[in-house]
């Protein structure tokens, strides 16, 4: 469905200079600097997949998405999506894809979503019976029958996001790009939107999701691609992201005696939350939980304890840091 091969994008920007002298000099002759935002990306997304495309700020996600949606021309490489080259066959391509950007609205502030939907019907040339059937299905799924006739500016953020999804899905796109689709929503609205995405995915719609909300990723994605500095640092099933860091647990403890700074294999003190409260990270392959609990109880007295799997946030942080360390080592050996 989507085939990306050696995709690269470099931007040319003006160098500003750091010192006053440099800034003054650069006013006369502005030297150019090349930034490689996306560096030789290759991956395939099969039809019906729910892919999370993640990375820290500045990793190159938006640049990649802009090329995949046909907004930007790449510097090098190829993309074939739905049988088309996005930036070359843009008109035909946009008729087949959808996009929801949590921070950008496709609705019109002063008119009700119902009217904006009708406008989209005309833009995409959706025949009346198909439009009615799709609209009814989506309105029922998202429960927006009443709200879609109010002016958009009167809607709550949750109601508006549901309408944004209807707007994006009315022409029945086979491929949908989501950028921070649940940003700012409360838990119930988030769950509604996620349920809707899952039900569309069950109908065969492919989703590419970019987000900094890792709960969205855990609730939705089957596969995760992580990029950093424009290159892929991870591409596998969501489950493998967890197993990558081994069998680690996060344990929050309240003890009767203070726990000193320990050097114990398989244990890392992650945070001191109070004089008798700490959070530790345990690699259970090196330090089995039952040994940890027995020994800690004997020495410090466990008054209370909470054990959880390492949150996906920590796994991602580790992945980003690992990559940064590898890059700085490579820079030193150059
Ligand atoms: N139009 C542009 N001109 C010059 N540099 C750019 C331009 N757009 C992006 N960049 C640079 O390219 C790199 C990748 O940016 P991009 O916006 O793709 O990252 P991102 O992963 O989407 O980040 P974020 O999560 O913060 O949105 C950054 O270093 C950014 O400063």
From TrEMBL:
The keyword Transport applies. InterPro entries: AAA+_ATPase, ABC_transporter-like_ATP-bd, ABC_transporter_ATP-binding, P-loop_NTPase. SUPFAM superfamilies: P-loop containing nucleoside triphosphate hydrolases. The keyword Transport applies. Transmembrane segments: none annotated. Signal peptide: none annotated. It comes from the Bacteria. Residues 2-254 form the ABC transporter domain. One of its GO terms (molecular function) is ATP hydrolysis activity. Pfam families: ABC_tran. Keywords: ATP-binding, Nucleotide-binding, Transport. Coiled coil: none annotated. Gene3D superfamilies: P-loop containing nucleotide triphosphate hydrolases (3.40.50.300). This is ABC transporter. It comes from Paenibacillus radicis (ex Gao et al. 2016).
């Amino acid at each position: 469905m989507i085939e990306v091969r050696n995709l690269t994008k470099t931007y040319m920007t003006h160098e500003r200079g750091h010192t006053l002298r440099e800034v003054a000099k650069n006013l006369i002759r502005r030297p150019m600097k090349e930034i490689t935002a996306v560096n030789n990306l290759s991956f395939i997304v099969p039809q019906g997949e729910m892919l999370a495309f993640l990375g820290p700020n500045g990793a190159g996600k938006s640049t990649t998405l802009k090329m995949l949606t046909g907004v930007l021309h790449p510097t090098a490489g190829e993309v074939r999506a739905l049988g088309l080259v996005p930036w070359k066959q843009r008109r035909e391509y946009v008729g087949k894809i959808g996009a929801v950007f949590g921070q950008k609205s496709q609705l019109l502030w002063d008119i009700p979503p119902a009217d904006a939907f009708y406008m989209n019907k005309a833009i995409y040339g959706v025949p009346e019976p198909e439009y009615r059937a799709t609209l009814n299905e989506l309105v029922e799924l998202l429960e927006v029958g009443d709200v879609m006739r109010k002016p958009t500016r009167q809607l709550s953020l949750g109601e508006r996001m549901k309408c944004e999804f209807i707007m994006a899905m009315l022409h029945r796109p086979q491929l949908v790009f989501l950028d921070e689709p649940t940003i700012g929503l409360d838990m119930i609205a988030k769950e509604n939107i996620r349920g809707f995405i899952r039900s569309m995915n069950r109908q065969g719609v492919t989703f590419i999701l970019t987000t900094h909300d890792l709960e969205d990723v855990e609730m939705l994605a089957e596969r995760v691609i992580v990029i950093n500095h424009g290159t892929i640092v991870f591409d596998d099933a969501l489950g493998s992201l967890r197993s990558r860091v081994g069998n680690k647990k996060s344990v929050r403890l309240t003890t009767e005696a203070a726990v000193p700074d320990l050097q114990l294999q398989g244990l890392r003190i992650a945070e001191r939350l109070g004089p008798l409260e700490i959070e530790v990270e345990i690699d259970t392959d090196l330090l089995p939980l039952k040994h940890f609990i027995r020994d800690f109880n004997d020495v410090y007295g466990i008054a209370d304890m909470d054990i959880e799997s390492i949150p996906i946030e920590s796994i991602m942080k580790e992945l980003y840091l690992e990559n940064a360390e590898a890059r700085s080592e490579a820079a030193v050996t150059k």
